[in-house]
Design goal:
The chain has about 240 residues and is an all-alpha fold. Helices cover about 75% and strands about 0% of the residues. The chain has one domain (about 15-240).
Length: about 240
Amino acid sequence: MPAQLPFTALLNHYFAAPADAFLNVVHVHPKYPSQPIDNSFAMEMLVFLILILFFIAVRASLSVEKPGRVQMCAEWIHEFVDEQAHSIVGHGYERYVPFFTCVGLFILMSNLMGLVPNLESPTAKPWVPLGVAVLTFLYYNYQGVRTQGIVGHAKHFAGPIWWVAPLMVPIEILSHLARILSLTVRLYANMFAGDMVVLVFFSLVPIGIPAIFNGMHLAVSLIQAYIFMLLAMIYVGQATAHEH
């Protein structure tokens, strides 16, 4: 049986039966019925719980006269994402800020999990970045259709010259599908490599040297979360842009 992290073992102890029942309903049969919840899903749930608690703490501590540290942190995050979205998406960017914020925070927290003992980064598993990439793909296409209609959004795939459209449409479709692969591989490869480097050096030199690579892991985590969020903004901006 695969090794379980403490939090994964806790979830399997209390929720193995409901998880097995749900998986059987959708015709997915886990290899280990006593451990249907794997480490990556457990880490995602932990990130989800942390973010929910953070949002609850922000809501509970809102104050105009005496803002606390949690509120100030939330305001800084919102202002940062808001400024980036305004400069990239442009007019009407406000409606997309919650999505960008959630994606950025989820990826950042997932990346940073690898720095905590007895935890690991779920983004170091390919299916987690893939899930977020597919969600981003569906989101920006949905917003494109919502903003411009099916015909208007389809014009983005046809190009500006009508007689080149038969060639441009399949190329654009493949290009958009390749974005899923690009988002997935970029995030997964960086986080997997970071975890492996820390693990190797910790096994060789357990004192001092791993701290340097933990610092590198922190930097990579921040950069990759920012890049993913930035690309999501670019895709939404392109999908919702109006031709003038």
